[in-house]
Amino acid sequence: MTPRLDAISIITADLPASLAFYRRLGLAIPAGAESAPHVEVVLPGGQRVLWDTEDVIRSFDPDWERPTGGERLGLAFLCDGPEEVDALYAELTGAGHTGHLKPWDAVWGQRYAVVLDPDGCGVSLFAPASPAAAPAAPAGSPGEK
């Protein structure tokens, strides 16, 4: 048997703030999920995004500590076009989320921006800079920090 990636897990200090942030990015998070210590959303391809509070993690891993010193995982959201990158960045930063990299035209052919989620994780927003531009750059490409 070969393991397959099934879920991406987000450990959050503030579940309601994290869910609100990812709802703005289009994830269909059920209403009322803020009151649960664990939340799951199935994506169109069948994979899942999971949220757990820090207290949930500590309930089975009492030695768990919040990571320090930088990101361990980055998420990237494909937008419909350069205008959507700019608009979504403006919406998120206008709602009080921290912008890390303002939208710019990256050398690899994308309109690219990074905003921080409520726990400080970088979330990339990108789209081809023009209709003929190449497909998405792989995670970890220049400009993701």
Structural key phrases:
single chain; 145 residues; alpha/beta; four-stranded mixed beta sheet; three-stranded mixed beta sheet; 3 helices; 7 strands
What layout of secondary structure does this protein have?
Elements (H helix, E strand, L loop, with lengths): L6 E6 L2 H10 L13 E5 L5 E6 H7 L14 E4 L3 H13 L4 E7 L4 E7 L5 E7 L17
How would you describe the overall organization of this protein?
With 145 residues, the chain is an alpha/beta fold. It has three helices and seven strands. It has helices spanning 15-24, 54-60, 82-94, and strands at 7-12, 38-42, 48-53, 75-78, 99-105, 110-116, 122-128. The strands form two sheets. Strands 4-7-6-5 form a four-stranded mixed sheet, with helices on one face. A hairpin with a 5-residue loop joins strand 2 (38-42) and strand 3. The N and C termini lie far apart (36 Å).
Characterize the largest beta sheet: strand count, sense, and whether it forms a barrel.
Answer: 4 strands, mixed
Mean pLDDT over all positions: 87
Helix content: 10-25%
Separate helix tally? 3
Please list the strands of the largest sheet in the order they lie side by side: 4-7-6-5
